[in-house]
Sequence to fold (345 residues):
Amino acid sequence: MITVDLRSDTMTRPTPGMRQAMFNAEVGDDCFGEDPTVNRLEEAMAALTGKEAGLLVTSGTQGNQLAVRAQTHHGDDVVAEHDCHLFNAEAGALSALSGVQTRLLKGDRGVITPEQIEEVVRPKDVHYGRTALIAVENTHNKSSGSPWSLEALAAVYAFARPRNIRVHMDGARLFNAVVATGISAQTYGRYVDTFSICLSKGLGAPVGSVVVGDRETIDRARYFRKMFGGGMRQAGVLAAAGLYALEHNISRMADDHRRARRFAEALADMPGVGIDLNEIRTNMLFFTPPAGQPPEQVVRKCETRGVRMLAMRPGVIRAVTHLDIDDTQIEYAIDVCRETMPHPS
Ligand SMILES: Cc1ncc(COP(=O)(O)O)c(C=O)c1O
Fold:
């Protein structure tokens, strides 16, 4: 049976070329700053985003949380979008690791505006915590991987800067946004202070993320990484996969986006299926099955035929395309969905 694992773009397995690069990696003890491959990856990601320095970390969660820890103090406020990953799906780390309070704003496809932010920024007063950081997510996972426009981001940054508020971008899927919009990572980088960028999602590496920013912030993040037990030794074997991904796996994301679009359009043609095609610009799609067909049931039925998706928030199924999904698998997934979700009438 053909298997089509659309649950997440974290399902990719390293390709033979990537494994070879990992095998050949020159390594050293990274806690001594002596792993040349880690150093190269950190420098490469910093250069790509126009930042001074980078830090290899174990996961997107660790990257986000270190960026927050490095740019806030306990008691500070972090402003974030209501459905963002760093508040909702990182095991309560904002309060556990950084002791910050969170002000959540309902975004439009993940985008929050200066007007909304202004409403929750604390005046300077002895009664209030300090608003220290605004976190944005690009692409925005829960909005079918919607990318941020430069105008929207520039507006947030223009608001934050004069108020001494830092802007962090959860760029778990930054390069999906880059490929979809044509805005370079460096251009996005003009309007954020820090990024956390995942190697283990659309880029197809097995482990890791890189935090980038100014040197002082990254030095602080490095200190907290050690404190949180994330210091690594011969991590060059992992960094090599990241370097390989930066070289080979960025422009090909356009194929993932095309396949997500193809899948989404086919779903839109199925009677009773709800999907907003305007939202589908990268590699994720969310849809609602026809009335009377609960998502969990549809997911279970599809899975018996090898098509794996996730029943997410109430009533909704998520599918994500990635490096290990080709055209044939997408056509198969479409056939299975069509046969699994007959029209209710
Ligand atoms: C938008 C976003 N940010 C951060 C993360 C966290 O990444 P990780 O699972 O590597 O901790 C995810 C994971 O799916 C994500 O979707």
Q: What stands out?
A: The longest strand covers residues 131-137. Residues 14-248 form a domain with the Aspartate Aminotransferase; domain 2 fold (CATH 3.40.640.10). The chain has a mean pLDDT of 97.
